[in-house]
Amino acid sequence: MPFAMLGFMIGTKTEYADWDWPILLLVVLCMIFARSAAMAFNRYLDRDIDAKNPRTAVREIPAGVIAPKSAMIFTIANCLLFVLTTWFINETCFYLSWVALAVVLGYSFTKRFTPLCHFVLGLGLALAPIGAFLAITNRFDLLPIMLGVAVFLWVSGFDIIYALQDEEFDKSQRLKSIPAYLGRENALRLSEAVHAICGVLVAFFVWKLSQGFDEVGALSWAGVVFFWALLFYQHFLIKPNDLSKVNLAFFTTNGIASLVFCAIVIVDLIG
Q1: What contacts 189, CB < 8 A, 6 or more positions away?
Q2: Bridge partners of 239?
Q3: Angle subtended at Cα 127 by Cα 125 and Cα 131, rounded to the nearest 5 degrees
Q4: pTM above 0.90, yes or no
Q5: Residue 66: DSSP 8-state
Q6: CB of 131 within 8 A of CB of 4?
Q7: Which secondary structure element, helix H or strand E, spans residue 236, and what is its range?
Q8: Are 223 and 205 a contacting pair, CB within 8 Å?
Q9: Which residues contact 194 (CB under 8 A, 6 or more apart)?
Q10: What fold does the segment set 2-270 form as a domain?
Q11: What would the mean pLDDT of 59-70 be, rounded to a whole number?
C-alpha cells in the first residue's frame, strides 16, 4: 500500500494528472481487493500443505476455523470487486486487471515447480506503484517502473528470508524454494545481493525523482538512508544458525521501512 500511494502521488505531480480523491479511493480499494484475493487463494490452495507443516497448521483453514469453500467464495468475490473497481478507473487499468490477478493468484502455484517463486511474489507487489500511477495518469512512465523494480527486489529478498523457516519441510514435501534449493547460507547470501541491488535502485529512483521535481531534496535522501539502514538491520538479525528473529525482520522491519520511506518521499513531493 505505501508504494502504491507513492506511485499515485508521483502521478499527481506530473503534467498528465491532478489530485483526484475518487481515483485515490478506487486505488485503495483495488489494493485491498487484490491483496485479499491473493491471501485467501494462497490459503485455499496450500491448505493441505499447511496442515502438514507445524508452523502453519494453526492457520484458519487447516485449523477448521474457515471452510475451504468459504475461502474460495471470498477469493472470487474479491477478484470480481477488483476488476469492477478498475472499470471505474480507466479502460487501461480494466484491461490489465486480469494480468494483475494472474500474477498475484498465480504465485500460489509456483512453489510447486520453481524455486523462483519468491520473485513471482515480488512481481505481484511490484505492480502496486505502477498500477497506481497508471490509475491517475492513464499512462506508463519510467519513474513508477523503476519504483516497481525496486519493490520487486525488496519483496523477493525478504521472502527468501521468510522461507528459511521451512527449508527442511519444503525438502520433505518436494516443494521449491531458494532455501531448499541453495541451502540456508547461500539463500541468505542471495537475499543480501538482491537487497543490495534494491538499495542502489532506490537511491537511483530518488535521484531521478529529484531531477524531475524541484521539491524533492534532502528529506527524500534521508528516507533512502533510513531504508538502507533497515535493509542492513534485517540481515543483521538473521544468521544461518539462528532464525529466531525472522518474524521481526520480515514483518516489523519491512513494514516500517516501506511506510517511513514512502511517507518521507510523499511529504517531500508535497513540498
Answers
A1: none
A2: 242
A3: 135
A4: yes
A5: S
A6: yes
A7: helix 218-237
A8: no
A9: 153, 156, 157, 160
A10: Tetracycline Repressor; domain 2 (1.10.357)
A11: 94
